Amino acid sequence: MTIQDRRALVTGGAQGIGRAIALRLARDGASIVIWDIDEDALEAVKSDVEGEGRACHVARVDITDSAAVETNVKEVLDRLGPIDILVNNAGIVRDSLMVRMKDADWDAVLAVNLKGAFLCSRAVARSMMKRRSGVILNIASVVGVIGNAGQVNYAASKAGLIGLTKSIARELASRGVRVNAIAPGFIDTAMTSGLTKEVRENLLRGIPLGRLGMAEDVANVAAFLVSDDASYVTGQVFHVDGGMVM
Ligand code: NAI
Q1: Whole-prediction pTM value?
Q2: Which residues span the membrane (predicted)?
Q3: Do the domain assignments include residue 244?
Q4: 89 labelled as ligand-binding?
């Protein structure tokens, strides 16, 4: 993969899918910047990425905080240099049926999963446009495509993220910036560790490949999409879901 010596910023990269993407991009030759709100996990992932022989800069950044996002992008650009790749991965769930859903649960999920991706994309895109080069990758979800009972906030945020992906792809294509999304199915991370055995078994029945995905399954596709091997690909949503949605 052709990302040698590029710099990738991964949000929510302290654990799970974001961590796997950071490690994979480091292995492919990129230097890494990780933003997260979990400071202990940030220190651990920093040493893991450095173990791959690449530089890793970590910062506690809440991506819902517009001023913090702007300040930290500026700091990276001034101190480290250009950001070639942005992976909008940070995401949360606050599940409940719609009739019981609290306003705060709606607002929190939309703030992180959708507004956070918008704030980071806007902050990074200016410098990418000037350099006429860059890649943005958004981690959406299959539930943003097919919906899910009990996740109206999450599904709406991920459907919104897909709309954001396609719109930014159209705005930035002429400036040499590509924008794509991955829609993972059910991936074995902290986010899905709370599922009961019964729910897991039900889910597995709907997955033709017969297993939950691993964070590395998503990272493998991410590595392709941010590389020059995908240089003619923009505005697309790639399902990494074991065939769950087809
Ligand atoms: P995770 O819960 O293991 O990791 C999410 C990370 O985001 C955590 O390190 C967390 O501290 C960070 N984060 C949360 N709020 C933040 C904020 N305001 N600012 C900065 N960082 C913040 O989740 P996982 O499973 O690794 O998911 C990563 C992405 O993949 C999310 O966008 C999720 O919606 C998406 N996804 C996950 C699936 C799964 O089955 N695990 C399926 C489909 C999509």
Answers
A1: 0.98
A2: none
A3: no
A4: yes
Residue numbers in the chain where pLDDT is lower than 70: 1
Question: What pLDDT is attached to residue 22?
Answer: 98
Residues classed as catalytic: 154
Ligand 1 centroid distance, CA of 218 (Å)? 13
Q: How far, rounded to the nearest angstrom, does the alpha carbon of residue 191 sit from its chain's CA centroid? A: 14
Could you give the number of structural domains in the chain? 1
CB of residue 181 inside a 6 A radius of ligand 1: no
Length of the chain counted residue by residue: 246
- Give first-to-last CA distance, the chain, whole Å: 27
DSSP secondary structure of 55-110: -EEEEE--TT-HHHHHHHHHHHHHHT----EEEE-------B-GGG--HHHHHHHH
Nearest CA-CA partner of 244 in 181, 192, 160, 184? 184
Domain of 104?
Answer: 7-236
User: Would the CB of 238 count as within 6 Å of ligand 1?
Assistant: no
CB contact at 8 A, 136 and 168: yes
CATH number assigned to the domain comprising residue 177:
3.40.50.720
Q: What is the pLDDT of residue 1?
A: 60
